[in-house]
Design brief:
Elements lengths: L13 H27 L5 H20 L1 H5 L1 H21 L7 H11 L2 H22 L7 H86 L6 H25 L10 H11 L4 E7 L7 H22 L3 E8 L3 E8 L18 H10 L3 E6 L5 E8 L6
Helix pairs in contact: 1-2, 2-4, 4-5, 4-6, 5-6, 5-7, 6-7, 7-8, 9-10, 10-11
Amino acid sequence: MADPHSPAPRPLTPVTRVLRLCLHGLLFALLALAAGRAVTDSAPRAGWVVAACAALAAVYAAGVLAPAVRRSPRAAAVWLSGLGAAWAALLVVSPDGLWIAFPLYFLELHLLRLRWGIAAVAVTACAAIGGFVAHAPGGALSPGAFLGPLLGGAVAVATVLGYQALYRESERRRELIEELIATRAELAAAERDAGILAERERLAREIHDTLAQGLSSIQLLLRAAERSLPQDAPALDHIGRARQAAQDNLAEARRFVRALTPPDLEHGSLAAALERLCAAAPGPRVRFCLSGAPRVLPTPYEVALLRIAQSALANVVRHARAGRAEITLTFMDASVTLDVVDDGTGFDPSSAPSGEGGFGLPAMRSRAETLGGLFTVESSPGQGTAVAVTLPLPLEAS
């Protein structure tokens, strides 16, 4: 049997399938025993007993075969009501109907919510006691008339509660394993993408810092040589061609650098990429602000600032439970600053775990410090969080 309160029923395991078959077998065996005893003992109302047993078996089989009973609590309640009415008819004509109370306990606890199931078990136990008393010779009372149904109901309640506790624990472990598998897959994909992006960034940086700079220097030297020679010097034509070739190759190198730029920066500036990031963020309302006169930054700077903004905003969405957040990009004379502020729950930065469990803070700090920047986090429980990174502008950008 599966937990009736689980959000989506799962396929039966071999154990639950056997338990369900045992419950079916127990009820039909008890009905057959009650009908057989009535016939063999030549009971005065043997025909009525057999008819009541057959009616109860038919109602039970109809509910077992009806998919609506397993899916709808209302359909299950209707079926149990019909089952109870058929059982009450059997109790009226035969004291052996008392035996059916035990499988009914499990059905009620399985199909109804816990409080209604326990109430149904109590009503069933009272009906069983009343049936026993009604068929007792002279209406004699005995402790067994009360203890038997009550103990049976208590055992059924304890058994079902224990089973449901084990089932919930099993479901928690299953969900944890599924979450772990999904997290490992996401982590592997993220590491693969990060490796690809890191290699693209490295190649772009190498081309920009070596090949492009070298070609630019060659072009400047050729221009200086061209100016130092007389206008009618035969070498001027060769120098002009060499300078043009250097200029063409420099333009090609810059195209390579742009092609290796991360996709988020391919179609616009860093400010535009940050604005798109804010507009696409799920959860809290995120606003983007630009301060100062924008200027062109080297690709490594733009990539680092964008990645830090993405990681900080991901922390806001996942952990902060914030209503609002703001990303500010500020250009100053000798530096550029990125601030990510939210009004969420906040945390204690001094007690934040390191590594991936530290919400990506070490990775953000490493990116900033690699470029000679300063990374700070200001937060406290219940007071929101402010993440700031300041990068000094290189000489050619200042």
